Amino acid sequence: MREYSPDLTPQWKRPKPVPEVAAEPDLVVEVAGTDFCGAVVSCEAGTVMLEDRFGKRRVFPLEPSGFLLDGAVVTLTRPSRGPSAPRLTASGSIAVPGARARVARAGRIYVEGRHDAELVEKVWGDDLRIEGVVVEYLEGIDDLPAIVAEFAPAPDARLGVLVDHLVPGSKESRIAASVNSPDVLIAGHPYIDVWQAVKPSALGIPAWPVVPRGQDWKTGICRALGWPENTGAAWQHILSRVTSYKDLEPTLLGRVEELIDFVTAPV
């Protein structure tokens, strides 16, 4: 029989156990032996996906002592599966499993262009279908008074309009002021284009570039960021980086929520 041999190493000389830390979403760690630092995006069996501040994502194995947290070596572990939290829609609302789209209301939300409509659909689409709200785009608001008159808003058919660059003294503000109806709500954001309503951090850039007057704004953005001067492809790239309301500026969030509430308010 093998004899028991006690460990006579003094306690103060024994290596300290490496703490285990659950790889919860948004936990920021550094990968040991590399210069990669990022936030936890997801954690599957045996691996963890991290995203750095530039938006680059990489997958690493959950190796013992494989990460640094605040400079200290740790072992990441897969989070325990507690009671499942309710699933949220991209807008942050509680999802309703199995819910069917409501028959479309008479009321509508108009937005200026296709990009605005695609962004609203991506973040608020689930909510809008449950509420029966249809979003349409106008290709600009120069003819807004005539468009509103043709729509014929009423208490049971309210109209909400989302306007780009709605700031004092702008052309958009003058057009909006010419519409006066209790059944129409015009809400706007201060950005030149809805592109700017996407947070720069979602794209891995420090800020949206400033485009000199006289240049096409979208083309100038592509040029300043070193992107191909294809605004359609640029928008698809921007839209692909939007996964939820967290990727949008609060100014836009508040205006869209306000319009949805207005159009769906009981008569």
Q: Give the overall silhouette.
A: globular
Question: How many extended strands?
Answer: 11
What's the end-to-end separation, in Å?
88 Å
Count of runs of 4 or more consecutive helical residues:
7
Largest sheet: 7 strands, mixed
What does this structure look like?
It is a single chain. The chain is α/β, with parallel strands linked by helices. It has helices spanning 114-131, 144-151, 171-177, 200-203, 217-225, 231-240, 250-264; strands spanning 20-22, 28-31, 37-44, 47-51, 57-61, 67-69, 72-77, 108-111, 134-137, 159-163, 184-188. Strands 1-7-6-2-3-4-5 form a seven-stranded mixed sheet, with no helix packed on it. It has a four-stranded parallel sheet with strand order 9-8-10-11, covered by helices on one side. The protein is globular, with a radius of gyration of 26 Å.
Gist?
Helix content is 27%, strand content 19%. It is an alpha/beta fold and 267 residues long.
Give a topology summary:
Elements: E1 20-22, E2 28-31, E3 37-44, E4 47-51, E5 57-61, E6 67-69, E7 72-77, E8 108-111, H1 114-131, E9 134-137, H2 144-151, E10 159-163, H3 171-177, E11 184-188, H4 200-203, H5 217-225, H6 231-240, H7 250-264
Parallel strand pairs: 1-7, 8-9, 8-10, 10-11
Antiparallel strand pairs: 2-3, 2-6, 3-4, 4-5, 6-7
